[in-house]
Write a structure and sequence with these properties.
Structural class: mainly beta
Number of strands: 8
Shape: globular
CATH class: Mainly Beta
CATH architecture: Sandwich
Radius of gyration: 13 Å
CATH topology: Jelly Rolls
Largest sheet: 8 strands, antiparallel
């Protein structure tokens, strides 16, 4: 299932019958031409509101996390789900009760200059 959360933010739900693993999520990102890195947080960890100068592609490999768009609403992500977050979108996050492992890649802003 794919859904637009706002005009620019996109969420893609895991669409395979098998449960995602860190390896299967990593393989999917590499197959998409992305260069991901891994990060993880414990239950209840909080990221205060912030913005990035790059586009973020994030997959949840394990656990869950809730992103909050400012302005906007919550986006709940579970294992295998993908979030495409454009540059400059203010957001915060709270990690779910089992913690979270994410794989993330950065892309230049659309229309931006690279290098």
């Amino acid at each position: 299932m794919t859904g637009e959360v706002s005009d620019q933010v996109r969420v893609v739900r895991w669409d395979r019958p098998e449960q995602p693993t860190e390896e299967s999520v990593l393989r999917r990102m590499i197959d998409e031409g992305l260069d991901p890195y891994r990060w993880a947080n414990g239950p209840g960890d909080v990221y205060p509101a912030h913005r990035h100068p790059y586009r973020k592609v994030l997959y949840v490999a394990r656990g869950s996390i809730r992103f909050e768009l400012h302005p906007g609403g919550p986006i709940d992500l579970r294992a295998g789900d993908r979030l495409d977050l454009p540059a400059g979108i203010e957001h915060s996050a709270v990690v779910g009760p089992e913690g979270v492992v994410c794989l993330e890649a950065h892309l230049p802003p659309r229309g931006g200059v690279t290098g």
